[in-house]
Amino acid sequence: MKSELELRGVQQRFHARGVASGYITAVDDVSFTLAAKPPQVVSLVGQSGSGKSTIARNVLGLQKPTAGSVLYGGKDIFKLSRAEYDAYRRDVQPVFQDPYAIFNPFYRVDRVLWKALKKFGLTKSRSKGLELIEESLRAVRLEPENVLGRYPHQLSGGQRQRIMLARVHMLRPSFIIADEPVSMLDAQVRKHFLDILLDFQREHAMTTLFITHDLSTVYYLGGEVMVINKGQIVERGPVSTVMHEPSHPYTKLLLDSIPQPDPDARWTSRISVDELEERADAKAAPAPEAPIL
Ligand SMILES: Nc1ncnc2c1ncn2[C@@H]1O[C@H](COP(=O)(O)OP(=O)(O)OP(=O)(O)O)[C@@H](O)[C@H]1O
Q1: What is residue 287's predicted lDDT score, i.e. its pLDDT?
Q2: At what angle do helices 157-171 and 110-119 cross, to 10 degrees?
Q3: Ligand 1 atom at minimum distance from 50 CA
Q4: Residue with CA at minimum distance from ligand 1 atom 5
Q5: Closest CA to 253 of 236, 229, 226
Q6: What residue owns the CA closest to ligand 1's atom 12?
Q7: 82-97: per-residue pLDDT in tens?
Q8: Rounded distance, CA 87 to CA 174, Å?
Q9: Atom number, ligand 1, closest to the C-alpha of residue 54
Q10: Within 10 Å of residue 151's Cβ, how many Cβ atoms?
Q11: How far is residue 271 from each of residues 181, 263, 282, 285, measured CA to CA in Å?
Q12: Which residues line ligand 1 (CB under 6 A)?
């Protein structure tokens, strides 16, 4: 268990056709540190294509940066010894947007949990293993008897996501890298999920990097936020400060783009039923025949 995960001057370029330079810079000189102590929640927020998932892939060691380094306990993750790499793989756990892709549809969901137990050598005893699985399922507010023995398609999206959180709970990593984990969940299930992450921070001292394009989720989680635009981190600070006193023009733009419900506002222009029918008729009318040349 290491105390720090650090990105130092990370740059990620990809070859791209149709661009004069022949490449795009998805991540542009990004540096930040995630500390394990005290445990923190840090959100990385930015619009689609700003480089968030690429950073997640860099941190998880799935994509080697073109320049700069990702350091775990001060060591470059792409230069770790086998034993150090195994420790890092256990200590830095991903949670992705679509857990469906992680489950094999032909196997019961239990397999994901048993495989984690085996891979990381948590126990050799079957009864102890089942005890750990059940404890972790309850920690993410799932009843073991309602999910064990089922196939992925027999669970809801929220249940599948919580099974991935149960896996995290069993492994007790120092860091969770969560890439858009709630964007496919409805508001209530989303809140459940975020509350579990906050429990993990408080009760099990886990630090989360939470990647999202949704500022309301950032607001709910609290902690710190980093704002990313075109591959660059343009602002970092406590959520309350950044939300109320944004210092970068891009953050202001992002905040201004949130629709504000106004109970006093009324729709001023109304479309009458007649008008709608007229439009439908116009659409249904056959197109004029093409002239014969
Ligand atoms: N493997 C790749 N090859 C080429 N270009 C890539 C690759 N991966 C990402 N990109 C490009 O890098 C840029 C950043 O992509 P990335 O997926 O990191 O953005 P994002 O902020 O996570 O977007 P979203 O919120 O839509 O997932 C985009 O222009 C994307 O098209």
Answers
A1: 45
A2: 20
A3: 21
A4: 14
A5: 229
A6: 26
A7: 999 999 999 999 998 8
A8: 11
A9: 18
A10: 13
A11: 39, 21, 16, 21
A12: 14, 24, 26, 46, 48-54, 213
ipTM confidence score? 0.96
Domains in the chain: boundaries: 4-258
- Nearest-atom index, ligand 1, CA of 53: 22
Probe target for ligand 1 pocket from 7, 43, 50, with the most ligand atoms within 8 Å of CB: 50
Which residue's C-alpha comes closest to atom 29 of ligand 1? Answer: 49
What string of pLDDT tens digits covers the 293 residues of the chain? 668 999 999 999 999 888 888 899 999 999 999 999 999 999 999 999 999 999 999 999 999 999 999 999 999 999 999 999 999 999 999 998 876 677 888 889 899 999 999 999 898 899 999 999 999 999 999 999 999 999 989 998 889 989 999 999 999 999 999 998 888 788 888 898 999 999 999 999 999 999 999 998 999 999 999 999 999 999 999 999 999 999 888 888 888 877 666 666 555 555 555 655 565 566 555 544 444 43
Mind giving me the DSSP string for 58-115?
HHTTSS--SEEEEEETTEEGGG--HHHHHHHHHHEEEE-S-GGGTS-TTS-THHHHHH
- Amino acid in position 118: K
Q: What is the pLDDT of residues 6-36, one digit of tens each?
A: 999 999 999 988 888 889 999 999 999 999 9
Q: Which two tokens stand for residue 39?
A: 């445990």
Specify the ligand 1 atom closest to the Cα of 57. Answer: 18
- Which of 52, 183, 210 is the pocket-test mutation for ligand 1 (most atoms within 8 Å of CB)? 52
Say which CATH topology domain 4-258 has.
Answer: Rossmann fold (3.40.50)
Residue 51 CA, ligand 1 centroid: distance in Å: 6
**Which atom from ligand 1 is nearest to the alpha carbon of 16?**
4
In three-state secondary structure terms, 14 is: strand
| C-alpha of residue 227 to centroid of ligand 1, in Å | 16
